[in-house]
Amino acid sequence: MGAQIKVKTDPIFKGIVATLLITGFFILASASIGITTSMKAPPYYFILRQITMGGAAGLILFIFAAKFSYKKWKTWALAVFLGSILLTSAVWIPGLGLKAGGALRWIDLGLLSFQPSEFLKFGFILYLSAWFSSRGGRISSLKNGLIPFLIITGVASSLLVLQPDIGTLGVLAISGLFLFLVAGGKFTHVLILILIGLIFLGILIYLEPYRLDRLAVFRNSEYDPQGAGYQARQALIAIGSGGIWGRGFGMSRQKFQYLPEPVGDSIFAVAAEEFGFIGASLIIFLFMLLAWRGFYISRFAPDSFGKLLGSGMVLLIIIQSMINISALSGLVPLTGIPLVFISQGGSSLAVTLLEAGILLNISKTT
């Protein structure tokens, strides 16, 4: 008699995801007030867009992924990865790509615009999970592990460099590196990859003055306070103003034309100002809970593909979140990437819920 397979999904993981999602909606609703006031738009403009474009689409993807057997993703892994590459490349099609802030990262369909790199991250980790699981112990070899992994990562990374989107590149590369280690990559090979990554990052920083400025701001918080260091400085002011308990929900001052991108990559600073050290710590704790439960689900998956795919989905969510929070806290240079579940961004939220749905499906078999 074969072992019975559970049909119920993990209730703890579902609860964590639901809590983060609802928390994100409330924080975004408050953080967007400053922008909607200056735009003379309805106060619910951003939160309504997030719910309809990110939440609704994400819920559909979440339910689909939770019901769709994760094992079938292995068959579609290459097609999804190639499709995500083509989709990301479409930003260079005249009339389709949307340029903003000096970067060509969005596809504009008129009533709808989205960031295809969100799908590239997902396709990359999905393909790596399938590829690693099919290689077995050969991942530890130079010929069958390190070199092919470098090629796969290089293909995906090149698109992000050209946009440019170095923040997303960092999330993709770090997630892939950790997954390589989980799959059985040799520690010496990991060190080689880190060295190559640092050299490559150094070249990218050297080629663009604004990246050098961000590095200078990271090394000295007083550097160019009205220019390159303005966002980092205002973020620290917002976080520090929150004190222990915060100013209270909706009471942030920095979101009113002081803090750049209060609904985007700076939203954690708004949350810290309104909810204080206690509230900010609770947000971080929720992400740590998601990591704990996600890795727990992945650990007990019945096959190597499930273990790797589940781990990869968790890595994408947690690494991006921790980079965002660390950047606003002055622990790493600013990157411009959003905070998962909380920042404005329909495509980011939709893909994140897809990743969470896959983890739920894996939990049925643990």
From TrEMBL:
It is found in: Membrane. PROSITE patterns: FTSW_RODA_SPOVE (PS00428). It is a multi-pass membrane protein. Its main location: membrane. One of its GO terms (cellular component) is plasma membrane. GO terms for molecular function: lipid-linked peptidoglycan transporter activity; peptidoglycan glycosyltransferase activity. Pfam families: FTSW_RODA_SPOVE. GO terms for biological process: cell division; peptidoglycan biosynthetic process; regulation of cell shape. Keywords: Cell shape, Glycosyltransferase, Membrane, Peptidoglycan synthesis, Transferase, Transmembrane, Transmembrane helix. The chain crosses the membrane at residues 12-35, 47-66, 73-93, 113-132, 144-160, 166-183, 190-207, 275-296, 308-331, 337-360. This is Probable peptidoglycan glycosyltransferase FtsW. Belongs to the SEDS family. FtsW subfamily. It comes from the Bacteria. Its EC number is 2.4.99.28. It catalyses: [GlcNAc-(1->4)-Mur2Ac(oyl-L-Ala-gamma-D-Glu-L-Lys-D-Ala-D-Ala)](n)-di-trans,octa-cis-undecaprenyl diphosphate + beta-D-GlcNAc-(1->4)-Mur2Ac(oyl-L-Ala-gamma-D-Glu-L-Lys-D-Ala-D-Ala)-di-trans,octa-cis-undecaprenyl diphosphate = [GlcNAc-(1->4)-Mur2Ac(oyl-L-Ala-gamma-D-Glu-L-Lys-D-Ala-D-Ala)](n+1)-di-trans,octa-cis-undecaprenyl diphosphate + di-trans,octa-cis-undecaprenyl diphosphate + H(+). The keyword Hydrolase does not apply. InterPro entries: Cell_cycle_FtsW-rel_CS, FtsW/RodA.
